[in-house]
Specification:
5-stranded parallel beta sheet, single chain
Length: 191
């Protein structure tokens, strides 16, 4: 019988196992960017498959953003731009239905919600404020997008450090930076 690989010292293991161990140690640090130069070189077919499955699973950990917008053109634009930046995107055209997707018994369907008020108007503001008061949503980050013409009408928006209002037109970079800030782990924000 061949020796049991679990009995080997780390330095005496095959190259593929060493690389797998190194990758595991690296992933434990939760890096924001993972760059691999031939990450499966020296691995067996089974180890290569396991590594591929692991990397797919890590990619599934991307944050999900729910966009509440009724205008199809804007939905498509936001979906495309956010997906390019690694976010999973859920689109809902009705503000009340978006809030109803969250409940106290199930995991939240999104890590952040973007309420777009230029087309949805008062219903977006009401949903944004309702989202701030429910026990199971009040700690989920939310963004209220408004048109410059609406700026005076939304003084009643329930804002705080994880509930932000942005004025349109806005650059995708501004939205992305806001999402990064809102979705950063607490220790990354100094909280």
């Amino acid at each position: 019988l061949p020796p049991d690989p679990r009995d080997r010292r780390p330095g005496n293991r095959p190259r593929g196992q060493k690389k797998g161990r190194e990758m595991g140690m690296l992933l434990a640090r939760e890096p924001k960017l993972l760059w691999g130069d031939e990450p499966v070189a020296g691995m067996t077919d089974v180890e290569t498959h396991q590594t591929a499955e692991l990397l797919k699973a890590i990619n599934r950990d991307n944050k999900t953003v729910m966009v509440v917008e009724s205008k199809a053109e804007m939905q498509d634009d936001l979906r495309e731009r956010l997906k390019k930046r690694g976010y999973r995107v859920l689109i809902i055209g009705n503000a009340e239905r978006a809030v109803a997707r969250f409940n106290e018994y199930d995991p939240p369907p999104a890590d952040c919600v973007v309420f777009s008020a230029p087309e949805l108007g008062e219903s977006a503001l009401q949903a944004f404020n309702t989202f701030a008061t429910l026990d199971y949503t009040k700690n989920i980050p939310a963004i209220l997008l408004i048109d410059r013409k609406q700026a005076g009408d939304v003084v009643s928006a329930n804002l705080n450090d994880h509930r932000i209002m942005l004025t349109m037109p806005l650059k995708v970079r501004e939205l992305r930076e806001t999402l990064v800030k809102l979705l950063a782990p607490p220790h990354a924000n100094g909280n």
